[in-house]
Amino acid sequence: MSGQIVSYRDAGTKGPKVGLSRRDRDVWHCGNRILKAFANCLDPDETPQNVASHQDQNYELLQSAQANQESAQANQESVQANQESAQANQESVQANQESVQANQESVQANQESVQANQESAQANQESAQANQESVQANQESAQANQESAQANQESVQANQESAQANQESAQANQE
């Protein structure tokens, strides 16, 4: 019936509106039984009628009550949908909070890694500087040894041993 209210006034007869499909006629009769039961609740002394009539003083009230019931049911369904949506939103917020916490922990770990890398780089620079100073000291020692070799032959043998030791030290520093 596509949500239309069909009454005797519309049909001009005392039966279902002419031209309705079988399904619509079944819905019409079912609706009339519901309206009749509701009318009996309002006025139980009245003899039940087969159909609700536009002449019935409660017809508009029954139509309004039926519309109110449908509206209440739609509202309940809307409330339920809203509650489900709110629950889904809460779950999404919780998941987002967990994601933020995981990201913060990852950032903290990255910062600690960067700090460790910076400390390692500083240690490497200090080691390189110490190696350079050691090489310079070895070069100065070699020069002193050469000058000492010219002055004293006995010192040459000692200087050769010292030079050999310096070469091994230099090789160890290169490794």
In short:
With 175 residues, the chain is an all-alpha fold.
Q: Beta-strand percentage?
A: under 5%
Overall geometry comes to rod-shaped
SSE pattern, N- to C-terminal: HHHH
Mean pLDDT level: 78
Task: Give the number of helices.
Answer: 4
**Oligomeric grouping of the chains:** single chain
Biased composition (Polar residues): 93-110
Region (Disordered): 1-21, 65-175
Biased composition (Low complexity): 65-92, 111-175
Mind explaining what this structure looks like?
It is a single chain. The protein is 80% helix and 0% strand. It contains four helices and no strands. The protein is mainly α and 175 residues long. The longest helix is centred in the middle third of the chain and has 93 residues.
List the helices and strands and how they pair.
Elements lengths: L7 H4 L10 H21 L16 H93 L1 H22 L1
Search tags:
single chain; 175 residues; mainly alpha; disordered N terminus
